[in-house]
Design goal:
The complex is a heterodimer of chains A (320) and B (484). Chain A is mostly helical and 320 residues long. Chain A has 16 helices and no strands. Helix content of chain A is 76%, strand content 0%. Chain B has a 5-stranded mixed sheet with strand order 3-23-22-19-18. In chain B, helix 3 crosses helix 12. The chains are: A mainly alpha (320), B alpha+beta (484). At the A-B interface, helix 1, helix 5 and helix 6 of A face helix 2, helix 9, strand 7 and strand 9 of B.
Chain lengths: 320, 484
């Protein structure tokens, strides 16, 4: 397969996944904002979201002070923000268009239709009318494109580059989402001991919102059958390989797809990925928490980033 | 300004009001359709085309938000029907014409016998910007140059017997003719919208075109390539015909490459793949000669591949179409095609040329300037309906501007009588009405010459308009060749 084609496929999948995760994150923030809280707390929440996406400087330059309305505009509509939902879906569609010949007709049509429909929704003010419904739609379109890829594509190189992009991006996004939520935790680590009932209620909403943002609320109940504690939330989203949005599950998929794609120069990429997977497989949540979750996630993000760079050099932008 | 077409030839209805036999079944069906049914299917077609993303980019055009430059080419739901006996004539004429044109290009780049025989004036070739000295004396596989040719054909009333109608070749496109994807997509759209019509008509299929194209490309591979690797070379996603490039690559199951995907080493061409370099043997290129190789042609081109011409000249890669085919499809060469056919094949041309006045000839020039109000004047190198004067429709000021241009650079222009292009019923806002059409069949030349039955029918959607180009508001129709 052409390296450029692989590059487009990889980024098409990454942008689709990123749009979905941005929608998930924003959805949780919008819902949290409906709960009673101080203005200061609300502002901190939105700031945390911008910071974790490394978008604070770009936002401040364009909008100045942080407000819910402006942050939403910036993260949903603003095409000057390369990570906004509109930018991601445009980029996904542009990448798809560049390689439409290797996509199945259904997959290309799914991306094209998402993009056309997005124009219509934004123009009609659907997002402002019903943000929750809009975020649902973004998530759903991402499910559609993934499902159509899975259901119609030959499981060849093209397919594996798509999957590689999806799970590398998801690993990155889940890690960021965890980081922002644990960072902004009311009193991280002690929440479980909350004796005061108001505090306990607040904690419940905090931890359940992060679970909901990754569609894991019901999964949590099923797996643990007990009250929500930060340790278990972290364990579920980091180490449980059967939880489809956890870091462990993402790395399993990354390793599997890399194996199918191996070539004469891919040993280093496979080593980086395999090592990350092994560490997640054999880690314990109490060790991770003891050494500091933030430090762990920061290091994880750096390594995922390094792996992405290595994949690019190996497959996508090789020097002749 | 009078824009009413002169009494002309209608593809469906004869002058006495009778429906022509090959349209009889369709006309009966059409008469039974409630108008809302046709309107519904038309909007269904538009929806489907947009979802599939069959669009073309308009150069320099922006929508109200300054972004989208993608437009749909309007698709008309009423087919253009060609009866079997007319197609047989067209097909023989096309094969004959393209065979002679390939012989001509080969001759120009070798012995130039036709120039020495005085059949084509030498200066028409020597002063031709499309003549490529790099091709002189170079052998190409099978001596074929124009592997894919799009021949524009119109029907107009026959002089002296207007009711009969006669086919004329308007233009030969031998460089990178486009439009074949619309021929294929229009057909699949019609089959989807009106399956019942295909039960009642024996319409010759066209869907095997990509197969024939691939066979043709493989048949001209360099001799060292037993299992040749074929690619389609596109300028990229912002090119107006990008959809077609991607479509053809997909249908043939070959890679769609851009210049940046290719490189040369030791006189061979390779593409960069996820598993390392892979040799490329045949390039169906959809970019112009000028952009193919920055070392040989335009140095600022980023669309091509450095060293490509060298690999080509060594016979290590085949370019389709060959470099320098433009020397034969120029409007200054066009008037000589019937004589070429006689010269190379010893046959009389089956398809007629439109009578053409050449600006380079002083007598013709005087005639053109005196009759500007009844002629169509074209720039010799113009394409796509740009730089053209339609005398009867032009304002006095426009005619005067062209007269001045003609006097300044007469060799840059030719002129032809305004043909009353045939009309075909077309579904427009007001209902079904006649609109002018043309036809572009696609001729494939490899070891043999083949034509799929049909082609792209373009239709001028504005009432009275004779300009069918998509860049100027033209639309397309499905073209049905009925089997005997």
């Amino acid at each position: 397969m052409l390296s450029r084609t692989a590059d487009h496929l990889f980024w098409m999948a990454r942008y689709t996944e990123r749009a979905e995760n941005t929608a998930r994150m924003l959805d949780v923030h919008v819902q949290t904002a409906l709960l009673p809280q101080t203005d200061d707390g609300a502002r901190r929440d939105w700031e945390g979201l911008l910071r974790i996406s490394e978008l604070m400087p770009a936002y401040t330059a364009a909008y100045g002070a942080v407000s819910a309305r402006d942050v939403l505009h910036f993260m949903v509509r603003d095409e000057l923000n390369p990570s906004s939902i509109a930018s991601c879906l445009r980029a996904a569609r542009e990448n798809a268009r560049a390689v439409r010949g290797v996509l199945t007709t259904e997959l290309w049509e799914a991306h094209n239709q998402t993009w056309l429909e997005l124009q219509r929704l934004l123009k009609a003010g659907e997002f402002e009318r019903d943000p929750g419904g809009f975020f649902e739609w973004v998530k759903f379109r991402s499910h559609v494109s993934r499902g159509v890829a899975y259901g119609t594509m030959l499981q060849d190189e093209a397919f594996h580059f798509l999957r590689l992009g999806t799970f590398l991006e998801r690993a990155d996004n889940t890690a960021r989402m965890l980081d922002v939520k644990f960072h902004g935790a009311p009193a991280a680590g002690e929440a479980v001991a909350g004796t005061h009932s108001a505090e306990a209620t607040r904690d419940f909403y905090h931890w359940s919102s992060i679970l909901r943002s990754v569609s894991a609320f019901e999964i949590y109940r099923k797996v643990y059958r007990s009250g929500i504690t930060p340790e278990r939330v972290a364990e579920l989203l980091i180490l449980r390989a059967d939880m489809p949005r956890s870091l462990a599950a993402c790395m399993e998929e990354v390793v599997r797809n890399l194996e199918s794609l191996h070539n004469d120069h891919s040993a280093e990429a496979q080593r980086l990925a395999g090592r990350l997977r092994a560490e997640l497989r054999f880690a314990r949540i109490d060790e991770i928490l003891a050494n500091g979750l933030h430090a762990f996630l920061t290091q994880f993000l750096e390594r995922v980033n390094a792996l992405g760079t290595r994949i690019s050099q190996t497959f996508l932008l090789p020097v002749a | 300004m009078d824009v009413t077409p002169r009494p002309g030839y209608d593809e469906m209805t004869a002058a006495d009001g009778r429906v022509r036999p090959h349209y009889a079944a369709y006309a009966r069906w059409l008469a039974e359709q409630p108008p809302e049914n046709m309107a519904a299917r038309r909007s269904q077609a538009e929806l489907l085309f947009r979802r599939v993303g069959i669009t073309f980019a308009v150069y320099g055009d922006k929508d109200e938000e300054g972004a989208g430059t993608e437009r749909l080419i309007p698709f008309d739901v009423i087919p253009r029907i060609i009866p079997a006996h007319e197609w047989q004539l067209l097909q023989r004429g096309l094969v004959q014409r393209v065979t002679a044109l390939n012989r001509f290009i080969h001759d120009i780049y070798h012995g130039q016998e036709i120039l020495r025989a005085g059949v084509v004036p030498a200066e028409a070739v020597r002063h031709n910007a499309q003549y490529r000295a790099e091709m002189q004396g170079l052998a190409v596989p099978g001596d074929v140059y124009a592997h894919v040719a799009g021949i524009d054909i119109v029907r107009a009333p026959k002089p002296g017997a207007p009711e009969e109608g006669e086919f004329y070749v308007l233009e030969d496109n031998l460089r990178v003719p486009s439009g074949v994807s619309y021929m294929l997509e229009d057909r699949s759209m019609m089959m989807r919208l009106f399956p019942e019509l295909f039960r009642d008509h024996r319409v010759a299929p066209v869907a095997h075109y990509p197969d024939l194209l691939l066979q043709t490309l493989r048949s001209v591979a360099p001799p060292h390539a037993a299992e040749p690797t074929v690619v389609v070379l596109t300028p990229g996603i912002y090119n107006s015909a990008y959809f077609e490039h991607a479509f053809l690559a997909q249908q043939m199951g070959v890679e769609l490459v851009e210049g940046q995907d290719l490189f040369t080493r030791d006189g061979y061409v390779y593409m960069r793949t996820t598993r390392g370099p892979q040799r490329v043997d045949v390039i169906y290129r959809r970019i112009d000669d000028d952009f193919l190789d920055p070392l040989a042609f335009r140095a600022d081109s980023v669309l091509g591949c450095a060293g490509l011409l060298d690999a080509y000249r060594r016979g290590h890669v085949t370019l389709c179409n060959a470099i320098g085919t433009g020397v034969a499809d120029d409007k200054s060469i066009y008037p000589y095609v019937p004589k070429m056919i006689e010269f190379y094949l010893g046959e009389t041309a089956i398809l007629s040329n439109v009578p053409t006045y050449a600006g380079r000839d002083p007598r013709d020039l005087a005639y053109i300037i005196a009759h500007l109000d009844e002629l169509v004047v074209k720039e010799v190198h113009g394409a796509g309906g740009y730089g053209m004067l339609i005398g009867p429709m032009a304002s006095r000021a426009e005619r005067e501007r062209f007269a001045a241009a003609l006097r300044a650079q007469p060799e840059q222009y030719i002129a032809q009588p305004t043909l009353s292009l045939s009309t075909c019923p077309t579904y427009v806002e007001q209902g079904v009405a006649p609109r002018h059409i043309d036809l572009r069949p696609f001729v494939l030349s490899g070891r043999t010459v083949k034509v799929v039955p049909g082609g792209l029918t373009r239709v001028a959607l504005r009432e009275g308009s004779l300009v069918v180009n998509s860049s100027q508001g033209g639309g397309t129709k499905d073209t049905w060749v009925l089997e005997p």
